[in-house]
């Protein structure tokens, strides 16, 4: 599922001066042109996100590698980060009570 489908119900899509670009597919096996475009975008590892200005030259680069990346606006990125933070439930600490062993204490005396 791409970023647009994942977040279109949560956040209204609006023009954003910044784009958040995440590499979601691996680089091995891709064309040399696509690898060089990803290097120019500074995307070298999977699941890494970079921020770029929303200009025509960047959008042209993103169009070349659109099957390898997810493009999010600032609102979409913030909503995804907020959902991840809410998903991590704060749990109470686990307290383990170590009671003395009855059989071990009686056999040693």
From TrEMBL:
GO terms for molecular function: structural constituent of ribosome. Coiled coil: none annotated. Gene3D superfamilies: Ribosomal protein L30, ferredoxin-like fold domain. It comes from the Eukaryota. One of its GO terms (biological process) is translation. Belongs to the universal ribosomal protein uL30 family. This is Large ribosomal subunit protein uL30m. It comes from Linum trigynum.
């Amino acid at each position: 599922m791409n970023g647009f489908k994942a977040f279109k119900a949560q956040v209204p899509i609006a023009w954003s001066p910044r784009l958040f670009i995440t590499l979601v597919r691996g680089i091995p096996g891709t064309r040399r042109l696509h690898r060089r475009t990803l290097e120019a975008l500074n995307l070298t590892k999977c699941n890494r996100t970079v921020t770029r200005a929303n200009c025509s030259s960047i959008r042209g680069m993103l169009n070349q590698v659109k099957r390898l990346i997810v493009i999010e606006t600032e609102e979409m990125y913030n909503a995804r980060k907020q959902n991840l933070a809410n998903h991590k439930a704060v749990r109470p600490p686990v307290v383990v009570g170590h009671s003395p062993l009855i059989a071990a204490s009686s056999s040693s005396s």
